[in-house]
Amino acid sequence: MPRSKGRARAENKNFDTDVELVKIHVFSERAHTRYTTIVTTSYAIFVGFVVVFYTLFFEKVYTLDIFILGVTVLTGGTAYEIYRVHQAYRKALKKISDLIEAVKQGKVLPKLEELVKS
Question: In the prediction, which pLDDT does 97 show?
Answer without folding.
Answer: 94
